[in-house]
Amino acid sequence: MTAQKRIYEFGNGKAEGNAGMKALLGGKGANLAEMAGMGLPVPPGFTITTQTCADWYDAGNRMPEGLMDGVRAAVAGVEAQLGRQFGGARPLLFSVRSGAAASMPGMMDTVLNLGLNAQTVEALATETGNPRFAWDSYRRFITMYADVVSGVERKLFEHEFNAAKKRAGVTRDSDLTADQLKQVCAAMKVVYLKQEHEEFPQDPWTQLERAVEAVFRSWNNMRAIEYRRLNRIHGLLGTAVNIQAMVFGNLNEESGTGVGFTRDPSTGENEFFCDVLFNAQGEDVVAGLRTPEHLDALKQRMPEVHAQLMQARQTLEQHYRDMQDIEFTIQDGKLYLLQTRNGKRTARAALRIALALVDEKLLTREQALLKIDASSLNQLLHPMFDPKAKVQVIASGIPASPGAAKGAAVFTPDEAERRAARGQSVILVREETSPEDIKGMAAAAGILTARGGRTSHAAVVARQMGKTCVAGCSSIHIDEHAGIFQAGAITVRQGDAISLNGATGEVMLGDVPTVPPELSGDFRTVMQWSDELRRLGVRANADVPRDALKAREFGAEGIGLCRTEHMFFDSDRINKMREMILAKTLEQKQHALAKLLPMQRADFLGLFAAMDGLPVTIRLLDPPLHEFLPQDPSTQQIIADQLDVSLKTVQDTVANLHELNPMLGLRGCRLGIEQPLIYDMQVQAIIEAMLEAEQQGVRVLAEIMIPLVGTIEELRWLRRRIEEQLNQFNLHHGSRLAPKIGTMIEVPRAALTADKIATEADFFSFGTNDLTQMTLGVSRDDAEKGFLIDYVVRGIFPTDPFATLDREGVGKLVDMGVKLGRGVKPGLKVGICGEHGGDPESIEFCHEVGMDYVSCSPFRVPIARLAAAQAAIKHGKA
Amino acid sequence: MTAQKRIYEFGNGKAEGNAGMKALLGGKGANLAEMAGMGLPVPPGFTITTQTCADWYDAGNRMPEGLMDGVRAAVAGVEAQLGRQFGGARPLLFSVRSGAAASMPGMMDTVLNLGLNAQTVEALATETGNPRFAWDSYRRFITMYADVVSGVERKLFEHEFNAAKKRAGVTRDSDLTADQLKQVCAAMKVVYLKQEHEEFPQDPWTQLERAVEAVFRSWNNMRAIEYRRLNRIHGLLGTAVNIQAMVFGNLNEESGTGVGFTRDPSTGENEFFCDVLFNAQGEDVVAGLRTPEHLDALKQRMPEVHAQLMQARQTLEQHYRDMQDIEFTIQDGKLYLLQTRNGKRTARAALRIALALVDEKLLTREQALLKIDASSLNQLLHPMFDPKAKVQVIASGIPASPGAAKGAAVFTPDEAERRAARGQSVILVREETSPEDIKGMAAAAGILTARGGRTSHAAVVARQMGKTCVAGCSSIHIDEHAGIFQAGAITVRQGDAISLNGATGEVMLGDVPTVPPELSGDFRTVMQWSDELRRLGVRANADVPRDALKAREFGAEGIGLCRTEHMFFDSDRINKMREMILAKTLEQKQHALAKLLPMQRADFLGLFAAMDGLPVTIRLLDPPLHEFLPQDPSTQQIIADQLDVSLKTVQDTVANLHELNPMLGLRGCRLGIEQPLIYDMQVQAIIEAMLEAEQQGVRVLAEIMIPLVGTIEELRWLRRRIEEQLNQFNLHHGSRLAPKIGTMIEVPRAALTADKIATEADFFSFGTNDLTQMTLGVSRDDAEKGFLIDYVVRGIFPTDPFATLDREGVGKLVDMGVKLGRGVKPGLKVGICGEHGGDPESIEFCHEVGMDYVSCSPFRVPIARLAAAQAAIKHGKA
């Protein structure tokens, strides 16, 4: 095995690394090398690779052989460049910082001024002629080192510092004298000894080695793991370590420190957005003890440095072709750049910047679109809480459906309906929701549940309705009868105002002000470019005309999934459905279904009208029948009374319909075959609505979709039956209705035998929710409250397979299904209608396997349009 | 489209078809052609193809164009050959019979003497000079035609016949005179007119066309569908129709009819097993009104015919190289063969005949093995009810586990144990069984349940234990408290003797005598030949030493699946398991597991000793934990008392463990990762037992198998943990234990990513039960009481996918898994341990995809050995 290169040096206008080496050097290290290579003023230093971090873990937290020798050589290089010595008479000090390939802000800490000890602090004082500065630097070093490397509580050291200020009768840090600071350092060393049972380390090499190991260790602290999980960061080796010569913003009044965005990160406007603090180190900015000054102050005090900074801003933007987030230090009137990276921004700013960079000829349209995080567009479509508002967060749950909702807390669907009818905005708070709650949910501005994950009933229905939802908020305790919930010490009573942030999962007390969404000209431009560049069609999942119209407004090119069962859950219909289920004779069943027929027909008519000229895919009934019956005896009694049957009939039916694994049970096309009257009614409603719509001048492109097909025989049987019904209808009405008849591909066997199934299908639509459940053998509802989260945390699943399609497993089946289907029917239209249809990574996959369209919830349509364009840009349009 | 050939003629020493054309001509038609071609005396005729039947259905029950023209031409050919006329003065009569590619005895009916009417019956009387014969033939024809073609109840006609006999004061059919028979015919025609509102058809062509359609129609009558379902006959086009000139066994005393087996179908001995009835038609034999005579009678009465028949027997056996089941008719001293086919036989006879044919040099060993139905060997391994015994069948359920069991009916597991302890044989009768019943089941000779299918708890456990089980016997009504069950009018009380036939599902009253199994020399020879010829290894699924020893006795070459959870269900252990599950602290959990450790160690030690020198694959805990806790409050209270916890603790735990779809939930390796202490204990027990066994001189080949793996990360994590535990153990004991560590492939994703998973697996074992559930999206337990049976009946599933592996879907995944796994690890050992491992068709598939072994329940080991040899013979050994 050849010794691998673990250390990459930079400085003096040269660098061994560059910006393309983020995986190995981390983002910070790669950009430091890039800037050094560009000739920008960067203090010299070196980066230990991310691979070294991985090796350190693999070796059981042991330093790879030879690493410290390499570090010594690299330190010698910096010493030679600067004419200083690490631990010597002209002391060289280092900053030690972590830096992974993905930005993980605040995840790991930094140690500054490393190399100071009893000797070097004196040498620094002598050299600079500023003992106050030297001792202040030592004070800072001891605090950071103890905290970050040794894990001693920071507040113990801050306590000593504050005590000294109190004794001296001063409030500002800078008012302490050198001698007072020296005493503070001495006191801090005593604290360290007491806590660690050893002297504060004096040997600079010991300091350095331990600091490097602390950075490695920080990669797997709880905070870092949680951050990666929440941000879906996976597949990284570890963190790099950046060791860089210190420059001092706190040396004197000609020194300072600053951070800035090269454009406004909120609006994207082309303004340098920059804060400067004079005579200070970076941590002082973060600590917020002093108010930073603006660029104008710098221009006044150090016009030359200001000009350099403006030049650097331009150089960096031209070089990186993106808005940069930079850190800099001014030491004794000289500018040093300490970091640059692509700056985080709001969706609004992302659009503005991308378009501006195209105008400035720094980017092509294609490059510009790739710079925008498609998921972030979500922000633009919902009202947002005013970022300037002061809020009191009382609990936090799973961000299940985006948006900003606020209103009076209510605990029953009835109360929600009552108050909504009076025009009050309400938040429905439930342990979890069920079909009985639908009307209450529709009446509410937002839904908060104590149980259930992102695919719980509450979450799915809320997303469908476009309602804000925070689910699985397990820290709240609901007492429905008392009409209160507890969140820690706080009690929220019925009628109290609360606010839900569907993007973060936060539950806030009171009526937090919101700002409305603004679909700016930039948004329209980006959508227009996306539409020009993408190959994938984008449809929406919508069950009612209101959603369909919303989707069309957002640019949907059809409905990819209308879930007909949602039409049955309405409280004025569910009893007719129940009547059908409880019926004992065929006649009774037909009688009940006959009542549902005109309602379904009206639903479909509305959808066809809303989507005039665009395809509408209608999925026949999918869920098992037991979902329509209540499980609790009291509601069963109510149903029995309403439908004039015995309680025993209801209970016997519930018992009969009970399945051990309903997910794998009698539903979808199985129900369609075993109880054909239901599909007959639905098909009748569709074709009657088609005829009526056409008579009204609507152009109808209806597609009947059969769910849960596992074998060609199922599809063949149902297709024949539908065709027969259709033929009779056409014969009787002299019409020529010809809806397409296709199938979901959601059972693994359907994908495996897609060459057979395609012979009877006019189209395929991949139902990747169920396909994921069956391919992985994971019940989503169960797993999301159980092992699924843990699996993602442990990295067993790289990401939640219900949020982002599992390429390796499920994706293989999808790819196989597309290829087999098209193999026998080259023009076969193929789409996706699982929730993955709205996830950018999954959309990229759909593009790669050659699907024709994706279908997603209305609010994700713009995301899908952009993501589809990004996929086409990356992989070519064909 | 070229006109297809729909009609194949035979007769006069020539034939258009042959025995190889069964798919098109049906078995009967193909063999008639073959015999005609061989020059055997076969009445001339023709066969309408099975494809025509399919076309008839496809055309909506309409005769294909030109078919009847073809029939007229073929009839003309027969007329020419025989010098007779259909409907003419020397009347030609036909038999019309169905005949599918697979034998479906009694499925469809036959019409004899077709062509008779008011004119031809007189012509026949004149020609034969035997009016009694002519009118008797007409009487038979009317009855058969009315029944088979027109669907008029047969008994209406029999009633007329019997009334006539009564009037005439005779008892034997043949005692009625021609005139009396003529009156019977007239009366029958009146019945026909009354029932059908039309005259009995007089036009022979109408008779013929309608008879052909009746045969087509009979293909899809309920009886035929059910027969095909039960016998797993699928993929056939339809039935052929055989139209053949009548010969008359009832012409005179030099005439007769007979059926026979060329060897004894019970024992296989080389004796012509033949019944003859003089002056009779074939239906008289079946009706059983007259006692047939033996071959000796024929030899005495018609020595020449006897010699011809003996010659025909030899010719047929030499030609078909198998025992034949023949039908013949003697008309006026001349022998005609009407049918030949390979005869059905008992397993014992199958072995005897196959071996004899090898001795007689008619077959090679390979050909001989292919003649044996591997599944039938089951008969030889269990005691059988004496076929000579008179029995009273009181109910019939699903034959869930083979064997013949008898004993006192008991209704509780406790009572079963009590009586068994006193040496009494008992049958445990339950609504359905649960883990609580295990000891009672073990104590019983057989298990009878009113609910549940072939994979219910009762069925699975019974098969595992080798107990006879009849499940899902829904016609019995159990009153556990009263200690009785009702079967129709019969009440069986506790202690009453009943007998269960696990091969047929019959429940019989009383103590039916049995005969013990006899593993004859033939059986040993067949097994020896099989072992020489097969490539696949055969292992057994066994959890306890008793089963392991049984399996070894039957020739198992190792244990392919030891289900460790079964060890926890024993009543003296389940509470320790429960203690572990209910524990609130890690210490309590460890404490409970520590009690289970020595028990598991002893289990494994026993298995290793039983399988000395052979591999033993131990699967770590697979089921979800909720299976160990009772659901009903009263048992929960008992548990709470026994374990000294609150009822609430038990109920909270049950609620916590509840899953909507436990099949896709927290079980298998997921549990191993989320609650690692359980697997730790099991691994500890395995390696301690390995060491102890080796110290006792046992050669241990242990294989640790991890269930439900879906991603490489799961396997990697668990493998690391096991290896670490193993290393520490070896270090501590100075041992060098190295069990193999492999995985089940039972989640579709595992098969799809088998190239990844193989990198961490020493072996693969396909768990095709779960793989089938997930690939098809079918919950077996739910579906078997629901749509699964209906799907098989409708042909949506060609066969029960849990009995015979679904090649097209699941098989594709298995094949992919094997190839991907071997692609990265060429020598990877691959087996199967689902129930398919004991099914001959599935075993053939396992051979084809190149598996190393199959594993099945002990009693199926001999079946698997033979099936493996048959697969190697068909497909080559490599």
Descriptive overview:
The structure is a homodimer of 878-residue chains. Chain A has 878 residues and is an alpha/beta fold. In chain A, 47% of the residues lie in helices and 17% in strands. Chain A contains 35 helices and 31 strands. In chain A, strands 12-22-21-14-15-16-17-13 form an eight-stranded mixed β-sheet. In chain A, strands 24-25-26-27-28-29-30-31 form an eight-stranded parallel β-barrel, surrounded by six helices. In chain A, strands 2-1-3-6-4-5 form a six-stranded antiparallel β-sheet, with helices on both faces. In chain A, a hairpin with a 4-residue loop joins β18 and β19. In chain A, α20 runs parallel beside α22 (586-610) and α23 (633-643) crosses α24 (647-657). Chain A is elongated. The model of chain A has no long low-confidence stretch (mean pLDDT 91). Chains A and B meet through α25, α27, α28, α30 and α31 of A and α25, α27, α28, α30 and α31 of B.
List keywords for this structure.
homodimer; 878 residues; eight-stranded mixed beta sheet; 35 helices; 31 strands
How does the SSE layout of this entry go?
The structure is a homodimer of 878-residue chains.
Chain A: E1 7-11, E2 14-15, H1 22-38, E3 45-48, H2 50-58, H3 67-82, E4 94-99, E5 111-114, H4 118-128, H5 131-150, H6 154-168, H7 178-196, H8 204-218, H9 222-230, E6 240-245, E7 256-261, E8 273-278, H10 282-287, H11 295-301, H12 303-320, E9 324-331, E10 334-342, H13 347-359, H14 365-370, H15 378-381, E11 384-385, E12 393-396, E13 398-401, E14 404-410, H16 413-421, E15 426-430, H17 438-443, E16 446-449, H18 457-465, E17 468-471, E18 476-479, E19 484-487, E20 490-493, E21 497-501, E22 506-509, E23 514-515, H19 521-533, E24 537-541, H20 545-553, E25 559-563, H21 571-582, H22 586-610, E26 615-619, H23 633-643, H24 647-657, H25 669-674, H26 676-695, E27 701-706, H27 712-733, E28 740-745, H28 748-752, H29 754-757, E29 763-766, H30 768-776, H31 780-784, H32 787-794, H33 807-824, E30 829-832, H34 840-848, E31 853-856, H35 861-875
Parallel strand pairs in A: 14-15, 15-16, 16-17, 24-25, 24-31, 25-26, 26-27, 27-28, 28-29, 29-30, 30-31
Antiparallel strand pairs in A: 1-2, 1-3, 3-6, 4-5, 4-6, 7-8, 7-9, 9-10, 11-23, 12-22, 13-17, 14-21, 18-19, 19-20, 21-22
Helix pairs in contact in A: 4-5, 5-7, 5-8, 6-7, 11-12, 13-19, 19-35, 20-22, 21-22, 22-26, 23-24, 26-27, 34-35
